[in-house]
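User: Please predict the structure of the protein below. I'd like the answer in structure-token form so I can feed it into my own downstream comparison script.

Assistant: Understood. Taking the following sequence of 615 residues as input:
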Amino acid sequence: MRSASILWIAFVAAAAPVPARAAGETCATLDACLARLSAVAILPGDYAHSRTPGEDRLIKHLVSFDGAVARLVPLLKDPDERIAQIAAAALRDAKVIDPAYLPEIRAGLDRGLAWLPAALGRIPSAEAAREAVARFLASKSAPGNQEAYAIQLSGRRAVPYILAAAQCRSGCPPEAASNLAAVLRRMDAPSRQAAGRGLLRIAREPGVPQATALGALTMIEALGRAGWDLEGGLVELRRQRPDLGAGIDAALIGIGAENAAPILARQLELRPAGFAAIFTLGEVARLGEAGRSAGPAVLGRLEDPDWETRLGAARALGYIDYQPAVPALIAALENPDDVRLNWVAAGSLGRLGNPAAREALEKAAARHWYPPVRQAAATALESLAAVARGTSRAEPHTDFFAYEYLGATAPACDQPSIGTIAEPPGRKLYWRPDAARLAALACAVEPGAAAPAAPTAGEKAKREATCGARNVEAMIANSLAAEHAPHVALRTARGWLAGGDRGEFGGELQFLGDDHSRQLILNENVADIFSLGTRTLALTGLAHMTFNHGMIYALTESADGSWSAVRFRSLPGAPAAAWLTDTNELLIKVLGGGTVVLSADGALRMAACRARAPR
């Protein structure tokens, strides 16, 4: 049962109706705020993991009263867990908690009160900081949890216990160093600086195991500029411990050391691919003008076959103020294939502030087909004018991946004026109307066609594993086909080009021949496939969390019957839907990027919208 005081508070609160989980009104006294807090806890809701804005406002007001902590702490042991949970949520936001309450906080933590770990960071004692670090290291939800926030709040008080953990005297789980590095990255600069020397001592300790030294270096990397004074010691350590070279290089890059740019340049010259290349280019950009010596290596990646790497290179060149890149960036601005590269190049030319780019920027600002690129070019021209006036153009490294949502300002067009046409019957299959036929394609058996004669046991097992069931209707009923079958298919002379789109779980483009042959062409999410003019095109892309990108591939069939795909045009976002038009063009609705039209010759433009009828 609850205590009599809590029952009375709840009874008083119930006398005045409270909108469900709103509780955002100002309360005049501590008792009134506690009454409302308890009333909120009585309402339905999961207080262990969610708080409404109204509850946040109430908690903020409650903890502003003197004596609030003393009234909240006893509620942590209330028999009603929801009362205890919301009291824990309030203590999380208290300004200061007296160290005398640490035993009650520990008991609440042992009870599993979800919001309570951060309260450890509100207690100004070394013992509370020790508790925060210990619970963080034992937690399964690290590094982005309440225990991490407790360490962040503890600041320098937590540093000795972070260093003790980094020594791994009793052994360390594999993720301990990376988790502690993630917490250090979010701590204030003085706390990070206080940790630096101790971490370097651990890495330099005679006989320290390689894993422990590398863990300390991982944490040094997270210090950022707060670790700038460690450069000399790290360079000396490289001479002593060549086996730690990769970790030392990463640490030097992380703290923005003077020799970080040459290290990154060497890494780029090794031609890393995929995300490794993008990450390295992002690290160069983060150095700002200190990364200028890496300019030649970065410029070399501007012609990379991988279009994502080209974006990263164009982005980094502006941040490091590498003036020799201006002609190449002008060419990138005028590249008709890649609208994202156009946008990035305009921004980088603005950062460089070189008057040699003015004519190209004026042209882009006036005539580029995509409005966000025109805006980026206009902003770059303003930067050039500021430089001409002698105004500082220094700009810190901001969101490196901003090109993933460059279309946020593009005008939407829900009713394009251009007309669309239906494709010939039997030419195109889509999942909703043609689920059975697409499920059959997943089994390499056309509806009505004979299966290959006498499949081997291995072939049969492989087909069973792919299809989940030989009976197509059973596949659909069990939702197995949606997992394995194509979502769209285009008929060709010898079979089907078939594409799958499973969002963040990936997709593919395959050729499924009438002779039951298969060829994997692309490992990307395929939204649709079209024949446009003399080209066969696949629209691919992904919009997930902070990433939103789209691409149009040109598909070609060779004399031996095999298919290849090359990037043809980039889109300013993932394709949501597309249609053939009565003008022999392709109308493409882009997620977060407007509606665009692709002509048969490859030119892109914004779709014109129908005028709204007057009311």
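That's the full token string. Residues 1-24, 445-455, 468-472, 475-482 have pLDDT under 50 and may be disordered.
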